[in-house]
Write a sequence for this structure.
């Protein structure tokens, strides 16, 4: 549903830059990264403004891997939230799991 996707006009400009041979210039690479970072940030805001699922937080973290974010505080906070949610999920699963009685075996 979401992703670090650039708009079709931007993709057309990037294709023109690739054909012109300027795609790998440092300034062009920086601009591409900046556009992707803005797209990631807007996607993150759209997801985080409602109650996101764990899979959505994992998605945001995985999408940030190829980006050179200017400030990684938000990403660190998301990673912390994800780790905390996973810890709580595992505690809840253990708490609600039925207790084994003495001599009882797991059904196959």
């Amino acid at each position: 549903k979401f992703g670090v996707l650039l708009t079709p006009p931007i993709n057309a400009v990037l294709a023109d830059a690739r054909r012109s041979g300027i795609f790998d210039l440092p300034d062009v690479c920086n601009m591409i990264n900046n556009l992707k970072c803005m797209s990631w940030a807007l996607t993150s805001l759209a997801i985080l403004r409602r109650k996101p699922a764990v899979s959505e937080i994992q998605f945001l973290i995985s999408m940030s891997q190829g980006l050179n974010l200017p400030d990684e505080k938000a990403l660190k906070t998301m990673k912390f939230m994800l780790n905390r949610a996973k810890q709580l999920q595992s505690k809840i699963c253990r708490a609600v799991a039925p207790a084994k009685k003495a001599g009882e075996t797991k059904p196959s």
